Amino acid sequence: GTVRIVARGTLPAGASRYVLSQEVSGDGLIVFDGHLIPGPDSLPRLPRVGMVMTVPDRLDRVAWYGRGPHETYWDRKSGARLARWSAHVDSLYHPYVRPQENGQRADVRWIALTDGDGRGLLVTGPAPLDMTALRFLTDDLDPGREKAQRHALEVEPRNLIRLNVDFRQM
Fold first, then answer.
1. Which residue, among 99, 112, 107, 106, has the nearest Cα to 161 in the 3D structure?
2. Sign of torsion over alpha carbons 31, 139, 36, 17
3. How far is the C-alpha of 154 from the C-alpha of 152, rounded, in Å?
4. CA distance readout (Å), 54 to 4, 26, 39, 105, 144
5. Are 10 and 38 in contact (CB under 8 A)?
6. Which of 83, 35, 63 is closest to 124 using CA atoms?
């Protein structure tokens, strides 16, 4: 009834290793376990440590127990209450003048993405997590070192939802 998958890799920066295991049960439960092992050099600055996945855009109702209702980050969260919140995924995006990563919620104990009938995905973790759910891929908002000179209205939402579940984001 259960399958275990283990992936091992090396991060180019700092020669750090990463081990990700997944246990998939027949009832739909998936348990992820990730370990970052710093290399012999000092650990480089990492923009985020976590996982990203895309889910169907019909899972556009979001509920979470964590900081809210507005976006919060590990270093900017004292003005947000810890409670149960719910919203439409489109309301989590903030159209900053220059497109950039946004919409994160900190200290999340669980997050549910569901459709109109209440079916969907539930994510929990052993420690408070950071989460982001948007209709944009990371590269849509932040194309890398060379910033495109564009505005938020020029970025088209996709027919998917990108869900980041992070231990920490810079």
1. 112
2. positive
3. 5
4. 21, 21, 30, 17, 20
5. no
6. 63
> Residue 14: pLDDT above 80?
no
Q: Are 109 and 125 in contact (CB under 8 A)?
A: yes
pTM across the whole model: 0.87
Asked if residue 59 lies in contact with residue 114, where contact means CB atoms within 8 angstroms, the answer is yes
Query: In the Cβ-directed half-sphere of 79, how many Cα atoms lie within 13 Å?
Result: 5
Length of the chain (residues): 170
Phi, psi torsion values for 97, nearest 5 degrees: -55, -50
The C-alpha atoms of residue 98 and residue 150 are separated, in whole angstroms, by 7
CA of 63: how far to CAs of 60, 108, 118, in Å? Answer: 10, 10, 11
Nearest-angstrom CA–CA distance, 57 and 159: 6
Average pLDDT, the chain: 90
Structure confidence at residue 1 as a pLDDT band (50, 70, 90): confident
Neighbours of 116 (CB within 10 A): 9
Give the integer Cα–Cα distance in Å for 115 and 132. 17
pLDDT at 99: 86
